[in-house]
């Protein structure tokens, strides 16, 4: 049974690597029919992983909740230098360290798992997901080397519960942590980003707990409306307008929608700006490369050439060099 455990590639009794055998549905496979594989180098990481798998299986019951396990991960990652004290995990550094630690493993399952660029980040992001046990065992094996050390682990004094996990909200107390952050004066968007919840959900909790939150104006009156219309006529971006008048982008866009002529005018202004940009690019290229033919401009300045060919072909052909006569094309004289 121990040989069938996921991630086990070594017989711990005989210290021999396990070999795969194709199982026939009805016929009995005798030991004499199995062609033994050539003995290769038995890697220490495979022995370690097989021992770790066996110890977990022999325990046959869960000792920790998922939240408890991830908390231990974070505490150990801080000690090992893979996370800061504000619980920002250095995912790239951790991924490269995992691959380097298990690189010599002969297990195909291990090597296939290490090729996944989302591992081990998903262990900390997808809190409600179910993961293959091998994903946990590889991380435990690198950080603690054995199941006993993992079970007996206690964080050092430099890793305190107040500092570890301070920037990540626990699943069971997410709402309480959101309320606490709002009471500290954090903005709705800041709390939404840290808690991985929507702004509307955070706002709902604030209203339920009578927490005043600063929101941008959703309606615009009087002088502000006239100012916004003037800036819209000048082609100022709606995000910049909202920032200057301390309003939401939606409110500015609502004012814009009430003036259809402005919508068309701003579209034309954006079109003209794009046209001038690509025209200037082509004119600069003509000045720098007078020896180029049309095909050279199309190849070297494809973005501007293609845009003008689609939207302003007449101007493009008016400044382009004359087309090569057909008699001189394809190597003709």
* Radius of gyration, in angstroms, nearest whole number: 32 Å
Helical amount among residues, as a percent range? 40-55%
Q: In terms of structural class, how would the helical and strand content be classed?
A: mainly alpha
Gap between N and C termini: 81 Å
Q: Note the run of SSEs as H and E.
A: EEHHHHHHHHHHHHHHHHH
Approximately what portion of the residues adopt beta-strand conformation? Answer: under 5%
Number of domains: 4
> How many strands?
2
Shape: flat
Main β-sheet description: 2 strands, antiparallel
Walk across the major sheet and give the strand order. 1-2
Low-confidence stretches: 160-172
Task: Describe the structure in your own words.
By secondary structure, this protein is an all-alpha fold. Helices cover 54% and strands 1% of the residues. The chain has a two-stranded antiparallel ribbon with strand order 1-2. It starts with 9 loop residues before the first strand and ends in a 14-residue tail after the last helix.
């Amino acid at each position: 049974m121990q040989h069938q455990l996921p991630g086990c590639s070594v017989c711990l009794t005989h210290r021999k690597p396990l070999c795969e055998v194709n199982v026939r549905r009805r016929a009995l496979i005798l030991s004499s029919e199995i062609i033994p594989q050539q003995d290769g180098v038995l890697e220490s990481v495979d022995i370690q992983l097989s021992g770790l798998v066996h110890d977990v299986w022999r325990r046959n019951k869960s000792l920790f909740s998922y939240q408890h396990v991830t908390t231990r991960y974070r505490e150990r990652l801080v000690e090992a230098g893979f996370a800061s004290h504000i619980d920002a995990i250095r995912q790239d550094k951790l991924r490269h360290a995992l691959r380097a630690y298990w690189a010599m493993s002969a297990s195909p399952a291990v090597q296939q798992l290490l090729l996944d660029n989302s591992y081990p980040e998903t262990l900390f992001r997808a809190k409600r997901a179910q993961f293959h046990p091998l994903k946990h065992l590889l991380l435990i094996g690198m950080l603690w080397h054995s199941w006993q050390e993992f079970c007996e682990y206690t964080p050092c004094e430099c890793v305190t519960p107040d500092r570890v996990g301070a920037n990540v909200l626990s699943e069971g107390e997410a709402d309480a942590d959101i309320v606490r952050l709002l009471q500290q004066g954090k903005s709705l968007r800041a709390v939404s980003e840290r808690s991985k919840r929507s702004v509307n959900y955070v706002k709902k909790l604030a209203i339920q707990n009578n927490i005043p939150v600063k929101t941008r104006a959703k309606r615009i009156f009087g002088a502000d409306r006239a100012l916004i219309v003037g800036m819209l006529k000048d082609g100022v971006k709606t995000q910049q307008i909202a920032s200057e008048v301390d309003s939401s982008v939606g409110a500015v866009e609502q004012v814009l929608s009430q003036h259809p002529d402005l919508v068309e005018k701003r579209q034309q202004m954006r079109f003209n700006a794009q046209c001038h940009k690509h025209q200037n690019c082509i004119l600069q290229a003509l000045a720098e490369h007078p020896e180029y033919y049309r095909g050279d401009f199309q190849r070297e300045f494809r973005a501007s050439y293609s845009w003008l060919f689609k939207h302003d072909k007449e101007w493009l052909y008016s400044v382009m060099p004359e087309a090569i006569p057909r008699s001189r094309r394809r190597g003709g004289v």
